[in-house]
Design brief:
Elements lengths: L2 H13 L4 H11 L3 H6 L1 H5 L2 H5 L4 E10 L5 E12 L5 E7 L5 H17 L6 E6 L8 H15 L8 E4 L6 H15 L20 H18 L9 E5 L3 H12 L3 E7 L2 E4 L6 H10 L5 H7 L4 E4 L10 E4 L8 H9 L4 E3 L8 H9 L3 E3 L1 H4 L2 H14 L6 H25 L6 H19 L4
Parallel strand pairs: 3-4, 3-5, 6-7, 6-10, 10-11, 11-12
Antiparallel strand pairs: 1-2, 2-4, 7-8, 8-9
The structure holds glutamic acid (GLU).
Glutamic acid binds next to strand 3 and helix 16.
Length: about 450
């Protein structure tokens, strides 16, 4: 890293103490930017680096709600409106007990570049709460969402900031949030949230988009080496929306997905994961993955704790959460002959794991590129809302596929242009950064 990058990085550390995930996300981008600053001295003169690391606006608010026992409960709500150079702030809401400002900022920072890479007119933002939906009744989740929106509504809008889902926020939560927004504002403003149900303004393919997109990205990476997913042994970590749809698409393309997980452990099913059963348990019953092995009845096993990556794979898709795949996991995957890794989650691989994959010549697709299909399809949902239209599944999936192929090609070309052929981390970071930096320059010192 050159002197300017080091100085700005140290400033970010000093001004955002204790926000380790945010620091990690910034360093990961900065480590690839040296050749960009050499080629574009104007970015340095306009202090683009300093500005891009400082969110345009950060909102933190109290979310009081009443549980089923009549007790008053308090959570903390966040919305970080990071960058609007390319369009309204866009990014999901995460409801998980681990959420604090550092997590929201890491996610918001990643989102700026991811969204730029999609080629759609969307800025970057992220939000959420330390609320834990697990074990809560529907009525509690509804009251929480209503209280959350009672503050959030004044900060968002179709042309301002468009939230969506992330971990802990799916169709149910988006419904309650949209209902409260509509009630407070007296506007049927469909474009204010994405991930809506299809009967009330949502887009077909949006639920599948992140997982499908990640698999489409892997297929493109494999193609560059004359390979495909057909016949690969695949591990998909997680068992939420991204993981389930990644499993379905990988199987459709001929991959054999032999394991998935949740926070309690993982299942190994050598016959290939039964997606319908997994969906029933996780989405239908909001149950635990340990149930899967018992109900599958084919000798598949549940391993409590442990590392899913030890099950061995040639293609690995981390689709659970940040920093879930570390150094020893990367080493373990290399031993089983892994050829491609793509991040369905945001920042699931640690910096050390990424280094190990890249040094071994493993195709590595970073989240900013590989999981961009979700937010890209959110932008397609916004398009449909703006034109009061609803597209078919086939048309929307074709658009998603074109976008993923485009992102892949742009990353590959950018990596080549900046002297790092085959390095998708360099391609994604630089491709996203240059687009946002150019727009920021054009808009003046704002
Ligand atoms: N939370 C998703 C992401 O990490 C989707 C965001 C969106 O659709 O706005 O990209």
């Amino acid at each position: 890293m050159d002197a300017t990058l080091t100085r700005v990085r140290d400033d970010v550390f000093r001004r955002n103490p204790g926000e380790t995930e945010f620091h990690q996300a910034v360093v990961e981008v900065f480590e690839t930017l040296e050749p960009v600053l050499r080629k574009h001295p104007e970015f340095g003169e306009a202090a683009i680096l300093q500005r891009i690391c400082e969110p345009e606006r950060q909102i933190i608010f109290r979310v009081p709600w009443v549980d089923d026992a009549g007790q008053v409960r308090i959570n903390r709500g966040f919305r970080v409106e990071f960058n609007s150079a390319l369009g309204p702030y866009k990014g999901g809401l995460r409801f998980h007990p681990s959420v604090y400002l550092g997590i929201v900022k890491f996610l918001g920072f990643e989102q700026i570049f991811k969204n730029a890479l999609t080629g759609m007119p969307i800025g970057g933002g992220k939000g959420g709460s330390d609320f834990d939906p697990r074990g809560k009744s529907d009525a509690e989740v509804m009251r929480f969402c209503q209280s959350f929106m009672t503050e959030l509504y004044r900060h968002i809008g179709e042309y301002t900031d468009v939230p969506a889902g992330d971990i802990g926020v799916g169709g149910r939560e988006i419904g309650y949030l949209f209902g409260q927004y509509k009630r407070i504002t007296n506007r049927y403003e469909s474009g204010v949230l994405t991930g809506k149900g299809v009967s009330w303004g949502g887009s077909l393919v949006r639920p599948e988009a992140t997982g499908y997109g990640a698999v489409m990205f892997v297929e493109e990476m494999l193609k560059t080496k004359g390979m495909s997913l057909d016949g690969q042994r695949v591990i998909v970590s997680g068992s939420g929306n991204v993981a389930i749809n990644a499993i379905a698409k990988a199987q459709y393309l001929g991959g054999k997905v032999i394991a998935c997980s949740d926070s309690s452990g993982y299942v190994v099913d050598e016959a290939g994961i039964d997606v319908a059963l997994l969906r029933q348990i996780k989405e239908g019953e909001r149950g635990r993955i340990s149930d899967y092995a018992a109900r599958r009845g084919n000798g598949s096993s549940f391993v409590a704790g442990g590392s899913i990556w030890d099950a061995g794979a040639t293609v690995a898709l981390p689709c659970a959460t940040q920093n879930e795949l570390g150094e020893s996991d990367a080493v373990s995957l290399l031993k089983s002959g892994v050829v491609a890794v793509a991040e369905g989650a945001n920042m699931p691989c640690t910096p050390k794991a990424i280094e190990i994959f890249q040094e071994a010549g493993v195709l590595f697709g970073p989240g900013k590129a590989a999981n961009a299909g979700g937010v890209a399809t959110s932008a397609l949902e916004m398009q449909q809302n703006a034109s009061r239209d609803a597209w078919t599944f086939e048309h929307t999936e074709r658009r998603l596929s074109e976008i993923m192929v485009n992102i892949h090609d742009r990353c590959a070309e950018t990596a080549e242009e900046y002297g790092a052929p085959g390095n998708y981390v360099v391609g994604a970071n630089i491709g996203g950064f240059v687009k946002v930096a150019d727009a920021m320059l054009a808009l003046g010192v704002i």
